[in-house]
Amino acid sequence: MKPKKIPFRMCVGCQDMKSKKELLRVVRTPEGEIVLDPSGKKAGRGAYMCRSEQCLTKAFKEKRLEKALKHPIGEEVYAALRLGIIE
Fold first, then answer.
1. Which of 34, 42, 48, 58 could disulfide-pair with 9, CB 3.0 to 4.6 Å?
2. Measuring CA to CA, which residue among 53, 50, 57, 31 is closest to residue 42?
3. Structure pTM?
4. What are the distances in angstroms from CA 45 to CA 3, 11, 28, 48, 86?
């Protein structure tokens, strides 16, 4: 039997490839809302990020999350993501 393939994704902060389960998914919904997606199944454009403060800070400073989601992101969204990562 063939071993199950593990999906890998790149973190927008540190640019490391990690398994999908290790990363946190951030989604821009079709309505243009930016939300955390704990299930990993929400509709919309997704970006993956490590569950660390450093990756979030780097993604924010270099606007990597904005580029990945192709949408401007406000300060309040980053504050909400920071709370989501810490929890």
1. 48
2. 31
3. 0.85
4. 29, 15, 5, 10, 23
Q: Which of 87, 82, 36 is nearest to 59 (CA)?
A: 82
Angstrom CA distances, 1 to 4, 6, stand at 9, 15
β-bridge partners, 24 = 49
Place of tokens 């509709």: 43
Residue of 49, 57, 64 whose CA lies nearest to 79: 57
Show the tokens assigned to 29: 């919904």
Residues 25 and 50: their CA atoms lie apart, in Å, by 9
The pLDDT tens digits for 20-66 are: 999 999 999 999 888 888 888 999 999 999 988 898 889 889 999 99
